[in-house]
Amino acid sequence: MPTANRRRYTSSDTTNYHRELANFRATDTVVVGNGPAALFLSYILHGNVPRYDPVTHGSHLDPVLHGKLSKFPGQSLCDILDSQKAIEYLTEHFHASSQMSYSDQALPVHTLLDTLMRPNADTEIGESKSRLRWDKNPAKRVDHIVLGSAAEAGGQWTENPVSANWDIGTLSYAEMFTLPGYSFPEHYKRLHDEQLPDLIRPTRRDVASYYACYPKEVGISAAMYSNTIVQKISRNSQGFTVRVQRRKSGEPFVIVCRHLVLATGIFTYTIPPPPIFLPLLQNGPQQPQIRPATAPILVVGSGFTAADVILSQSSHRKIIHIYKWNPSRPSPLKGCHPQAYPEYAEIYRQMKLATLARTGSRQKGPQSDHPGDSLRDWNDTYEGFPNSQVITVCPDGRIEILTANDGVIERTVSELKYCAGRKGSLGYLSADLRKEVGVVDAAWVSADTMRRRVESDLEVTPGVFVVGSLTGDSLVRYGLGSCVYSAGKIIRQFEKDRLVIDGEIDRGVGMVVDKNNKVWGGCTIS
Fold first, then answer.
1. Is-contact 259 491, C-beta < 8 A?
2. Do the beta carbons of residue 49 and residue 484 sit within 8 Å?
3. CA–CA distance, 434 with 428 (Å, rounded to integer)
4. DSSP β-bridge partners for residue 52
5. Cβ(91)–Cβ(109) under 8 Å?
6. What is the pLDDT of residues 265-324, one digit of tens each?
7. Contact criterion met (CB below 8 Å) for 174 and 202
8. C-alpha count within 13 angstroms, C-beta hemisphere, residue 278
9. How far, in Å, CA of 387 to CA of 258, rounded?
10. Helix, strand or coil, per DSSP, at residue 445
11. DSSP H helical segments within 273-318, as ranges?
């Protein structure tokens, strides 16, 4: 592109440009996904700079980490974490630390940010004071757009694909959901007009409300495009072309950008039931209700989603539960302590009792008292079938179950809740771009899909970053460090580009435009 034709794209040109190409946007960075990690990254890209703060609440409780961070006084954490080597330097002692309890499963950069935001959160009640200070610096602001298919900010937290009770407690404790600028305790007090209690597992309703309100409270709403479907992303000569459609209006538009952040997570889609269950799913207005409403509900699945569905039912509703049982790869419910998670521990106990009864190891009968006994009369309302398979399904609700010992049992059910899990997808990336990021199968993305790539570098291919649960760390608290690392690289590149171009970039667009040649920031629109 000839230098003579370059000029800044100013706000006064907006009307004329939109007449030429009304559904076009140019920006520096596109973030795909609107869950907690995307919100946190947007907060940083709005010019909010994190710095280690050993003054307000004292130095970090890990003296080794404090000593290392003290070598970078006043520096932004985004600048300190400028490479994998820097992350290794700050975290290499974590596995041997006697002062702190560090996760050995999460990525080191995620563990690092978690301990700076919530030191000793797992062991000290009410003592989790952040050792980060957030400073507003407009010079660090990078123009960006956050695209999410969810109707509101918060991603999968705002969705309920299996109709579970919104008032079931979350797995994580309340302080683990907080993002900077507007904390979960602040939101809880606004909702309930009382202080957040210690060691509370908030309802999913409250968490969804918090993330939905977060953009407005911290001033990042303008960057949010929720209820938006990303159809295809491909690489162009200077960055990426993103083709998008608004869900409600059907309006398509195109975005060009220099940086792309994948934050769609690994829980976007529910795994659909196999075709054999179709008769239980067809119950529209043209087909009268022929299944008895009082018949049991059929729940298929062995994880938390299946447990939430069971917990959402009336205590008098009968449940037929089909699940996998493999002692070498147990259900995640097994890790739920009866005192911390009594409801999940009780469901796992019922699954185990049903397994023992079906294999003849133990007859199901009167049980001793347990914390979850008050949930329902399990003997009368719960029937478990481990490692079983539905082989026949009729529209009237009759099903045949092939049990693990090759017996066939007939039951009648009123409805199906298929809870085989949720996975992500990178189907919105072009085939060439998927190949670049190391994903061959676009259909499903799990916690393992990107793990090896992000362990080497969160910039998995030039200009493409992976953050949040897509890295393989599914808890909110362990999905934020990747955002700090990615934001640092994006900000440094943005500043570098600004120095190369003659004149300052208009931060409303973030790119230089050649109007005559239909070229935006060197990206030809096709």
1. no
2. no
3. 9
4. 132
5. yes
6. 998 888 899 999 999 987 655 444 677 888 999 999 999 999 999 999 999 999 999 999
7. yes
8. 3
9. 49
10. strand
11. 278-281, 304-312
What residues contact 361, with CB distance under 8 A and at least 6 apart? none
**What is the value of pTM for the model shown?**
0.86
What are the start-end ranges of the E strands in 264-354?
A: 269-270, 297-300, 319-323
Tokens of 516: 């005559």
Q: Residues in the chain with pLDDT < 50?
A: 1-21, 286-288, 365-366, 502-526
Query: Which pair of tokens denotes residue 16?
Result: 């004329």
Which tokens go with 237?
A: 């000569």
Sign of the alpha-carbon torsion through 128, 129, 133, 134: positive
For residue 517, report the phi and psi dihedrals to the nearest 5 degrees: -100, 10
Q: Which helix (H) or strand (E) holds 114?
A: helix 108-117
**Torsion angles phi and psi, residue 127, rounded to 5:** -110, 15
Length of the chain counted residue by residue = 526
- Helix/strand/coil (H/E/C) assignment for every residue in 152-214: CCCHHHHCCCCCCCCCCECCCCHHHHCECCECHHHHHHHHHCCCCCCCCCCEHHHHHHHHHHH
DSSP 71: T
Residue 261 near residue 142, CB atoms below 8 Å: no
pLDDT at 496: 86
- Please name which of 494, 498, 473, 497 lies closest in space to residue 483, comparing C-alpha atoms: 473
Cβ(520)–Cβ(513) below 8 Å = yes
